[in-house]
Write a structure and sequence with these properties.
It is built from twelve helices and 19 strands. By secondary structure, the protein is α+β, with helices and mostly antiparallel strands. Among the domains are: 87 residues, RNA polymerase II/Efflux pump adaptor protein, barrel-sandwich hybrid domain (OB fold (Dihydrolipoamide Acetyltransferase, E2P)); 203 residues, Chloramphenicol Acetyltransferase (2-Layer Sandwich).
Length: 424
């Protein structure tokens, strides 16, 4: 008897997704709650679990097809799948390039059954991001120890294993001289110019559409200021060891900026507001969307009620979002909402930018790289670690005076972090 696998509820207002990848092949044994497919939504990748123990049956949807919430995408057959297990390991182990004997092995009759322990390892379920890195580095995931939840592999696990493999692997011994492969002329030598067409992911399509809608709808304007980061850097240097020892997390710059933004948003509430029809919605809470880089693109998880959080709470939340974004494990509800966005292009080396707001929010703060620049302090020219700040805002709601005042409040708090403690 077969059990249907349906597209789960994906979150508020999300009715459709794209089947990004099948994580199990027809005939493979699956366990209840084990991921069998990955769906791409407008916000994140979502794994579809098996509802029962059994064998992967018919797959009704091809990779790349759009599916609606509640649609049946596959069937799980009852049974243990013992007969199908030897086939299930075809894709998981990744062989080094040029290993001709593996082709022969696939064409040969059924190989001898592996020991039970090896069978379990060979059927690891990999997230799309982890699977991609495994393929790129030609690694066997069953030989890598996972540090994620329930021992699952993370992207960092695979990258660490790849680095160790390159360091430890001796130079390969020369093989018996086979017939030399024909030398293919390079594209440049042959005068060829190549193009590759790759279908946009649903996330990238959504990002493109929303950013263009923001430009078409909002009256966008950006104002700038610069901040002397000396005081923040000294505070981090002085307390980072104690902070890490007490809270188990590194003290970063982002928590200072989030706390400073909370103070500035209290003084300038319109920056934390939004337009709804012909009404303005003001809020007495602050939910900060933090832009995080993920394999499938930029995602913006939300830290809620930051006005009530400590430095440690903020750093722990950001670190957790960063790890789960890399592994494609963020949840839909964690991406929804948000009243104000902070984007740190400085981690990629950006000196200056004009970020675009994330509707229906009315403003976004852009952080940039810190670099020493000559500034005048007390009549003397000195080198100081400076950062440019950019605030893009919807001029329909926020006046220029309010935008400039907001950045000045942030500048004052960051250059004198004591203000963050005494709420000044």
């Amino acid at each position: 008897m077969a059990t249907e696998v349906k597209v789960p509820t994906l979150g508020e207002s999300i009715t459709e997704a794209t089947l990004g990848q099948w994580l199990k092949k027809t005939g493979e044994a699956v366990k209840a709650d084990e991921a069998i497919a990955s769906l791409e939504t407008d916000k994140v990748a979502v794994e579809v679990p098996s509802p029962i123990d059994g064998v992967m049956g018919e797959q009704l949807v091809a990779e790349g097809e759009n599916v609606e919430v509640g649609a049946v995408i596959a069937r799980i057959e009852s049974g243990n799948g013992a007969a199908a297990q030897p086939q299930a390991t075809v894709e998981t182990p990744v062989n080094p390039p040029g290993a001709g004997e593996n082709i022969e092995a696939r064409e040969a009759p059924a190989p001898p059954a592996a020991p039970e322990g090896e069978e379990e390892e060979s059927q690891l379920t990999l997230s799309p991001a982890v699977r991609r890195v495994v393929l790129e580095h030609h690694l066997d995931p069953s030989k890598i120890k996972g540090t994620g939840k329930d021992g699952r592999l993370t992207k960092d696990d695979v990258l660490t294993a790849a680095k160790a493999h390159k360091t430890e692997a001796p130079a390969p011994a020369p093989e018996p001289a086979p017939a030399p492969a024909p030398v293919r002329p390079s594209a440049a030598a042959a005068g060829e110019r190549r193009e590759e067409r790759v279908r946009m992911s649903r996330l990238r399509q959504t990002v493109a559409r929303r950013l263009k809608e923001a430009q078409d709808t909002a009256a966008l304007l950006t104002t700038f200021n610069d901040v002397d980061m000396t005081a923040v850097m000294e505070a981090r240097s002085r307390y980072k060891d104690l902070f890490d020892k007490k809270h188990g997390i590194r003290l970063g710059f982002m928590s200072f900026f989030v706390k400073a933004a909370v103070l500035a948003l209290r003084d300038i509430p319109s920056v934390n507001a939004s337009i709804d029809g012909d009404e303005i919605v003001y809020r007495d809470y602050v939910d900060v969307s933090v832009a995080v880089s993920a394999p499938q693109g930029l995602v913006v998880p939300v830290i809620r009620d930051v006005q009530a959080l400590s430095f440690a709470d903020i750093e722990l939340a950001i670190a957790d979002f960063g790890r789960r974004a890399k592994d494609g494990m963020l949840k839909i509800e964690e991406m929804q909402g948000g009243t104000f966005t902070i984007s740190n292009g400085g981690v990629f080396g950006s000196l200056l930018s004009t970020p675009i707001i994330n509707p229906p929010q009315s403003a976004v703060l852009g952080m940039h790289r810190i670099e020493e620049r000559p500034v005048v302090v007390g009549g003397q020219i000195v080198a100081r670690p400076m950062m440019y700040l950019a605030l893009s805002y919807d001029h329909r709601l926020i006046d220029g005076r309010e935008a400039v005042t907001f950045l000045v409040r942030m500048k004052e708090a960051l250059e004198d972090p004591m203000r963050l403690l005494i709420d000044l």
